[in-house]
């Protein structure tokens, strides 16, 4: 059976209207649990929690850490640059484990037109100590829940965050 372009478009619109199509490679970003200010989805992946324009602390600190460590290559809002791809688009098909593996282990894509290299950041504490927060920020951007500006309001730093940060950073 051959689908016409109109029938294909109608099927896509129907799936989008029913919520079956998610922009997030990790699935539904709806938070179902929280532990010390860190929200998790039904599959245990870190996720964002934005209510009335106020972001959770991890989304906020993810924005800050992304700006300090990732924007040089991937652009100030995750939309990419001439040097590196859009992470907002990448998270539409990457799962949390795939994201973690790429950041920690790096990646190299070679084509006739270009060579793209993501360096391994697995030993970079400025990235890895905040990797969940960076992921949460990019997940919110990828799902369209957060615009490109600095979050205007955020939840306070959760108890235990400073201790975990100090422990990780050494």
TrEMBL record:
Region of interest: Disordered: 147-170
Coiled-coil residue windows: none
Composition bias, Basic and acidic residues: 147-162
Signal sequence bounds: 1-23
Source domain of life: Bacteria
Gene3D superfamilies xref list: Cytochrome c-like domain
Any GO MF annotation of the entry: metal ion binding
Pfam family, one: Cytochrome_CBB3
Residue ranges annotated for the Cytochrome c domain, each copy included: 48-142
Swiss-Prot/TrEMBL keywords: Heme, Iron, Metal-binding, Signal
KW Heme (keyword) present: yes
InterPro entries from the UniProt entry: C-typ_cyt_methanol_metab-rel, Cyt_c-like_dom, Cyt_c-like_dom_sf
Protein name, UniProt field: Cytochrome c-553i
Organism for this UniProt entry: Acidisphaera rubrifaciens HS-AP3
């Amino acid at each position: 059976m051959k689908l016409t372009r109109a029938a294909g478009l109608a099927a896509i619109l129907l799936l989008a209207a029913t919520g079956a199509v998610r922009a997030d490679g990790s699935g539904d970003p709806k938070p179902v649990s929280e532990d010390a200010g860190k929200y998790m989805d039904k599959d245990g992946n870190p996720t964002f929690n934005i209510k009335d324009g106020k972001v959770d602390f991890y989304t906020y600190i993810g924005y800050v850490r992304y700006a300090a460590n990732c924007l040089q290559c991937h652009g100030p809002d995750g939309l990419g640059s001439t040097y590196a791809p859009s992470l907002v688009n990448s998270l539409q098909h990457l799962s949390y484990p795939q994201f973690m593996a790429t950041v920690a282990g790096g990646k190299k894509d070679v084509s006739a037109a270009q060579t793209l290299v993501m360096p391994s950041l697995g030993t970079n504490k400025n990235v890895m100590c905040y990797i969940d927060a960076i992921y949460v920020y990019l997940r919110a951007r990828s799902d369209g829940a957060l615009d490109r500006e600095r979050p205007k309001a955020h939840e306070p730093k959760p108890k235990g965050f400073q201790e975990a940060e100090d422990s990780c950073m050494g």
